[in-house]
């Protein structure tokens, strides 16, 4: 396992370059399997765990199952100080009588000061911790003024309840505005940005601001230069929910295109030549290279996790990377 630093100065945290996504823990993935996956991830050197306050409401849960499972695992194993826990708020159901949708109308809670404060304290309770290491706004909220949201995260940090803040599903220009606002208010800026990102190209149609794009990678590369904010790019759905490796999993959310299918063919061919699996090559492609990203993997079994851990120390030869990039 390799490690990297997120955040800066006194708030810097060292985390594994693979994060474990807990989205289905306690709903699709039962508690015993979730515990086994968490145990093995930690044993392999993994330290970064990713959850949210709405996992996994869309498969019938109430939304806090994943945080609850992690909380019980931390208590049962006494592992609180060995891991960095990230959770998210703002995309749980605002009106419980209406469905949660990822396309407008969203029915999301949003990122008002009131929601940020209330939901963060609820996450502390469900996780059973006294500090959230990384707290994300789950989906950017364009109806709440940026100063209000940035100030609300800053207040939780000043109280010592949150170490680092982050934002997910956001346009790069909105992230830049939030960073400028944090500097104005003298609060710690968003240190991590979590977007959908994989070996496939982002589709040129909405919800394109949910994806990593060249603009965001360029913005992140400029971090730390001339006083600019350092920001780590975190990649969700890095395996396209399994579609990179398996034909039984459909391409989703706008990624089904001739270009995607050509990339998948090349990924699988390269994997075979290297004696690796397509998932391992896809993760190594994200972690290596000039514009690295930190993938959040979502295994639903120990076998899947074991496969994905094989990517932790995999370096792609330069000519292989060139071939993959050329498609
Ligand atoms: N910020 C956001 O808006 C956002 C959105 C989505 C996810 N996330 C985070 O990102 C994490 C990962 O997301 P994701 O589940 O979409 O990611 P993913 O890693 O792209 O997909 C996970 C799925 O891929 C399949 N899979 C996993 N390992 C495999 C392997 N070794 N070989 C073949 N298939 C494999 C499994 O499907 P089966 O279970 O069907 O076998 C698994 O459910 C989540 O847990 C969550 O923490 C964040």
Describe this structure in words.
The chain has 327 residues and is an alpha/beta fold. The chain has a single domain (3-241, 290-314), classed as NADP-dependent oxidoreductase domain (TIM Barrel, Alpha-Beta Barrel), CATH 3.20.20. Helix content is 37%, strand content 14%. It has 10 helices and 10 strands. The protein has helices at residues 31-43, 65-77, 113-127, 146-158, 172-185, 214-221, 258-274, 278-287, 302-309, 318-326; strands spanning 3-6, 13-16, 19-21, 48-50, 84-89, 132-137, 162-168, 192-196, 232-236, 294-297. Strands 3-4-5-6-7-8-9-10 form an 8-stranded parallel barrel, surrounded by 4 helices. The chain has a two-stranded antiparallel ribbon with strand order 1-2. Strand 3 (19-21), helix 1 (31-43) and strand 4 (48-50) form a beta-alpha-beta unit. Helix 3 (113-127) packs parallel to helix 4, helix 4 (146-158) crosses helix 5 (172-185) and helix 7 crosses helix 8. The longest helix has 17 residues, at 258-274. It is globular. It starts with a strand and ends with a helix. The mean pLDDT is 95. It binds NADP nicotinamide-adenine-dinucleotide phosphate. NADP nicotinamide-adenine-dinucleotide phosphate binds at residues 21-23, 50, 168-169, 194, 236-242, 245-246, 279, 296-300, 304, 307-308.
């Amino acid at each position: 396992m390799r490690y990297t630093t997120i955040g800066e100065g006194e708030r810097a945290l060292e985390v594994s370059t693979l994060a474990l996504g807990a989205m289905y823990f306690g709903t699709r993935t039962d508690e015993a399997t979730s515990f086994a996956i968490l145990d093995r991830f930690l044993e392999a050197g993994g330290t970064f765990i990713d959850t949210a306050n709405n996992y996994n409401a869309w498969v019938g849960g109430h939304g806090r199952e994943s945080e609850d499972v992690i909380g019980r695992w931390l208590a049962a194993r006494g592992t609180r100080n060995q891991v960095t826990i990230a959770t998210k708020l703002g995309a749980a159901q605002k009106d419980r009588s209406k469905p949660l949708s990822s396309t407008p109308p969203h029915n999301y809670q949003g990122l008002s000061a009131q929601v940020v404060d209330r939901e963060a304290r609820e996450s502390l309770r469900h996780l059973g911790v006294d500090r959230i290491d990384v707290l994300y706004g789950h989906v950017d909220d364009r109806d709440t003024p940026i100063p209000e949201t940035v100030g609300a995260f800053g207040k939780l940090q000043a109280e010592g309840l949150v170490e680092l803040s982050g934002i997910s599903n956001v346009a790069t220009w909105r992230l830049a505005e939030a960073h400028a606002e944090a500097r104005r208010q003298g609060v710690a800026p968003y240190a991590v940005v979590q977007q959908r990102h994989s070996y496939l190209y982002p589709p040129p149609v909405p919800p394109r601001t949910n994806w990593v794009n060249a603009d965001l990678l360029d913005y992140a590369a400029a971090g730390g230069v001339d006083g600019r904010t350092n920001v780590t790019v975190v990649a969700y759905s890095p395996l396209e929910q399994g579609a990179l490796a398996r034909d039984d999993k459909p391409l989703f959310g706008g990624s089904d295109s001739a270009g995607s299918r050509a990339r998948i063919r090349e990924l699988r061919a390269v994997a075979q030549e290297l004696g690796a699996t397509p998932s391992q090559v896809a993760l190594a492609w994200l972690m290596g290279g000039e514009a690295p990203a930190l993938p959040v993997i979502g295994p639903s079994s120990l076998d899947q996790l074991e496969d994905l851990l094989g990517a932790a120390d995999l370096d792609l030869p330069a000519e292989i990377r060139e071939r993959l990039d050329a498609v």
